[in-house]
Amino acid sequence: MTLTTEPPLTTSSAAAPPASGRPRPGLLTGLSHVALVVWALLVVLPLLWTLLASFKDNTEIFGDALQLPAELRWDNWARAWSKANVGTYLLNTVIVVAAGTFGTMLLGSMAAYVLARYRFPGNRLIYYLFVSGMAFPVFLALVPLFFVVDQVGLLNTHTGLVLVYIAYSLPFTIFFLASFFKTLPTSVAEAAMIDGASHVRTFFQVMLPMARPGLVSITIFNVLGQWNQYLLPLVLLSGAKDKWVITQGIADISTIAGYEADWPGLFAALSMSIIPVVVVYAVFQRQIQSGLTSGALK
Amino acid sequence: MFTRLRAFGFVAGFLVVPAVLYLAFVINPYVQAFQIALTDWRGVSRAPGFVGLENFARLWDDQAFWQALRNHGVLLVTLPLVTIALALFFAYLLNLGGGGASGTMRGVRWSGFYRVVFFLPQVLAVAVVGVLFKAVYRPDESGVVNGALIKLGLEPVGWLTEPGLALWSIIAVMVWQAVGFYVVLFSAGMAAIPRDVFEAAALDGAGRVRMFLSITLPLLWDTVQVGWVYLGIAAFDGFALVQVLSVDRGGPDGATTVLPLEIWKTAFSYSKFGYASAMGVALFFMTITFAALTLRVTRRERIEF
């Protein structure tokens, strides 16, 4: 009997402090929920509104903003996809980001690996040369970069953009992966070498698989960074509209929507550029969150 | 000897392609930028003439440059302050806000869901967000904000056309996009603080505000400092959002312009490449100074736990 009476006693003594002046946890918890719900709505509502507006016609768009569309006008989406070239822009972006990220990961992990695990004269110098790139704003290089890419004949080409993406993604990728490779145990690589595996084979078949968590984080970081890039395509692809990526395409559709009076098409284009990202995020949100923030915690 | 030679060949083989790319497209342009900044170069048609520091002297008298600097100043103060304050508040609620009666600290219900939603704007492209908010901010009832204001019987506001308001509207979008990232970042930091520290403080009668100020914030200081540097560097950018969202690219009348936008316009609209590079050099030194100062001023004893 004494055992069952004890719990109520402890709760009543713990409930005493709130009575002595401090607000009750119930009220505070309620208020914090309100704050959280308000911010969640602030995030979701603009996106939801864009999606709804993509089904409206021009009159509805210029009418009351808080009204629902009368019907689902999928032709807005068809127009944006083909006439406003959103399909092309999305495809271009996928090509550029896939090539750019693959190249960044391949070259970045190769460089990071030898810089982290091999001793040779000039190792530190090369490492700091790469890492120093993180301290420079891209805007400083903008003018010369334009002329360098022009001189090698790669202006207005995807190849040029991909190479520039790789070059500018290398500093952070090498910084991140070099510290990751340093944490991996040496014994496995040594065992592979004793078994007669070459340096190259050891890297691709032993070390890269072991570095998988780090590779996943930094791949996500690079995919998002390159997918969202706006300045570099704006400068390096300005003369070839058929090669544009989605960010510059959307910005362009936004400026011409005024002349062509196709606002529903703009909202459909916006929705098309947002939905794939949201879907990918919904599936990989855990990896994406840790991938993006792990860079900051290094 | 042979094995060492083989290792050397391997190292060289792995480094050569990344190094060549990096030297050609990153180091080379950065070095050139400092040289071009000392010339009056206006494009391929004319040979650049050396003008010494004349570009920098002209910057000193350039209204647009000072306007951009003023805007960076506003951004530098408000963007980190507002974003970090909101993110700390939300992260604290999500991780420790659901504290029970006996001093055990835990997150509120659905904290995982909130984290996912809050982080979402971070994965959207800045240019796309800019176009989206251009519609949200429209000056009549067709914009979401003004539509709601009119519904409430209020006058619509020219969010992007009022010179005194436009920059704040743009900062609001930056905060909107950034908060989620820092909520996740700070949450990770808070999760690393041992629970018994909070429980001990609760036994000593510390309230939730006191606990935040005396325990969470000091133990999270390193992470907050990292966030401050990140947001400060972001305050020196702002290109994509201002270029897409503001009226007349940096308007009304230069009220929202930023240095990267001026560099881009000076170079690719007016072909003043020497002058644009001088702006780039100025921007570089400001960014470096900021990062060095912040790391120095906010340095504290690291608390191990």
TrEMBL record, chain A:
Q: Does the keyword Transmembrane apply?
A: yes
Quick one: where's region Disordered?
1-21
The record places domain ABC transmembrane type-1 at 90-284
Q: Which InterPro entries match?
A: MetI-like, MetI-like_sf
Q: Which Gene3D superfamilies match?
A: MetI-like
Would you kindly state one Gene Ontology biological process term found in this protein's UniProt entry? transmembrane transport
The UniProt entry's sequence similarity note says: Belongs to the binding-protein-dependent transport system permease family.
Q: What is this protein called?
A: Sugar ABC transporter permease
Source organism? Streptosporangium carneum
Lineage per the UniProt record: Bacteria, Bacillati, Actinomycetota, Actinomycetes, Streptosporangiales
UniProtKB/TrEMBL annotation, chain B:
Tell whether Ribosomal protein is among the UniProt keywords.
no
Output the CDD domains linked to this UniProt entry: TM_PBP2
Q: How does it sit in the membrane?
A: Multi-pass membrane protein
- In what residue span(s) does the ABC transmembrane type-1 domain sit? 69-294
Q: Which GO terms describe its cellular component?
A: plasma membrane
User: Where in the cell does this protein reside?
Assistant: Cell membrane
Q: Which GO terms describe its biological process?
A: transmembrane transport
Record key words, sorted: Cell membrane, Membrane, Transmembrane, Transmembrane helix, Transport
Pfam families linked? BPD_transp_1 (PF00528)
The record's section on InterPro entries has: ABC_transporter_permease (IPR051393), MetI-like (IPR000515), MetI-like_sf (IPR035906)
Where is this chain primarily localised?
membrane
Which stretches are transmembrane?
7-31, 74-95, 116-137, 165-191, 212-236, 273-295
In terms of SUPFAM superfamilies, this protein maps to: MetI-like
Q: Which family does the entry's similarity section mention? A: Belongs to the binding-protein-dependent transport system permease family.
* Alphabetized PANTHER family for the sequence: ABC TRANSPORTER PERMEASE PROTEIN, DIACETYLCHITOBIOSE UPTAKE SYSTEM PERMEASE PROTEIN NGCF
Q: What is this protein called?
A: Sugar ABC transporter permease
Species in which this protein is naturally found: Streptosporangium carneum
